[in-house]
């Protein structure tokens, strides 16, 4: 009985030591991947990397990690337009089946999904915020974007026109969709100015616009978008996604 107790104690101690070594190893690996990802994606700050699953060392022995989560607070995504960029907030990506090299210099996920947010203030930079001629001496510009409820964006405009004293803002509800690498905003209906209908193609040059997102980390791409309280929520997905290297 005494020998059995000793054996059990030794087994518990060894198990505890293995767990400690395993956690130390996973912490080291997370740091290496985070540093590599920061360099690869030219990030301002080091991202958060979490390697999930236990034991980690068993996954390492198999050459593939089950689940790796990456968090990037602020990401500057190329728009595909003359070197311009758009800031994307709180990007979170979940990578499945991550194959890696021995020194973590390269890692590729078989599948990945992600979520992020483009604030209304950031999206407003793409809209026609400068006064623009819409015909008949009328000029218009977008002065604000906000949550319109039910997945819609409220686009607020102001108009100036000869003989019209009122300059009260006018709002329209707009749908937001994905087309290729673009987030598109399209007015569901057109505003009227003191009961006068404006020329559709002229006014849509103001109300309708698109925000390009030419590249996301690792090559994941836009999937869906939805207007929310603080901005446009985006989801992304991809396969054979490069996490590092």
UniProtKB/TrEMBL annotation:
Alphabetical list of InterPro entries matching this protein: DUF2993
- Per the UniProt record, one Pfam family is LmeA
Give the protein's recorded name: DUF2993 domain-containing protein
